[in-house]
Amino acid sequence: MYTLFNALLVTEAEGEFTQEIKPLDLAQLPDNDLLIQVKYSCINFKDALSASGNKGVTKKYPHVPGVDAAGIVIKSKSAQFAEGDEVLITGFDMGMNTWGGFGEYISVPAAWALPLPAGLSLHEAMSYGTAGLTAALSVHEVIRAGIKPERGPVAVSGATGGVGGLATAILAKLGYEVTAISGKNDESFLLNTLGASSIINRAEFTDTYNVKPLATPAFAAAIDTTGGAILSGMLKATQYGGVVTCCGMVAGTELSTTIFPFILRGVHLAGIDSVMVPLEQRRPLWELLASEWKPANLSSLIQNIRLPELPAKLNDILHGQAKGRYVLVHD
Question: What does the alpha-carbon distance between residue 238 and residue 167 come to, in Å, rounded to a whole number?
């Protein structure tokens, strides 16, 4: 095994942050339970924040971002894993303050790793990544609330993004009618690739459903990935007994609402966290993502990239220009 590996290293000098693809030494990695050769990673909004020097995500630089990784165990100090095991890691502190999947090797605690589920390849695992787990947690809340396809449409915001796109595709696979909310004019991708039943423009949605404290009930449930006015409108337009999930804040962190959706319609607001959710809750969801929840066209939802392309794609995601998922392939 070589001691050097390639990675995207973010450095700080006098308040300026620089991204550089360069060789690093395995000795620079922390001493943890598992040394993993990363085969695939993927890009999330949090990675773009870390790579741009956001101290709310990553406190110390130099740093290798990448909150997701799938690969092969090279060394193990844990009885749970053996050399050669295929594993996936999403969330916890990886890619935040622990060097992450934008390097060809990572060293992490065994408590962060899951054995790759049967029916899922390493590449497919990163086609999902944290976005897929977040989407699965959101869909699970819809199902747990007893919302069946015949109840009516489910609204999904940020539908061309990672979480929203995968949530749309999973819901469509399960037979739900999905109303995709998006600021991008990409009808073919939303309807034909993701499987949405209808599309509503983001501005039109807020204009329609944020006029009054309660709007005409239009959705059986809703999955919000953006926050702000979209989340407010979803709460006001959800049918009696429905659920609205919340997992993102790219459109704002403030929530403007009254108590009417909650006390007059019994609407539930469910917060979604995929970073620290325990492994015992992750495992059954990953098994569903590997089987009956897996979209038939999962591969068409992603674009493979290599390390040299990574800085440009991180910039696209940071500025809301991404469509679908980017999977980083380590050659």
Answer: 18
Tell whether the model's pLDDT for residue 151 goes beyond 70. yes
> Domains along the chain?
4-116+298-329 (3.90.180.10), 131-271 (3.40.50.720)
Per the DSSP assignment, residues forming a β-bridge with 302 are 325
Which residue do the tokens 């740093």 mark?
A: 63
Per-residue pLDDT tens for 221-263? 999 999 999 999 999 999 999 999 999 887 788 999 999 999 9
Cβ neighbours of residue 2 under 8 Å, at least 6 residues apart?
none
Specify the DSSP class assigned to residue 257: -
Pair 308, 134: CB distance under 8 Å: no
23 three-class SS: strand
Q: How far is 5 from 14, CA to CA, in rounded Å?
A: 27
Does pTM top 0.70 for this prediction? yes
Tell me the C-alpha to C-alpha distance, in Å, between residue 86 and each of 67, 199, 326.
17, 39, 21
All residues at 6 or more sequence positions from 4 whose CB lies less than 8 Å from its CB, including other chains:
23, 24, 25, 26
Please give the Cα distance from 136 to 85 (Å, whole number).
Answer: 24
> CA-CA distance, 153 to 130, in Å (whole number)?
25
Residue 227 DSSP symbol: B
- 5 has pLDDT over 70: yes
What DSSP element (H or E) covers 167?
helix 162-173
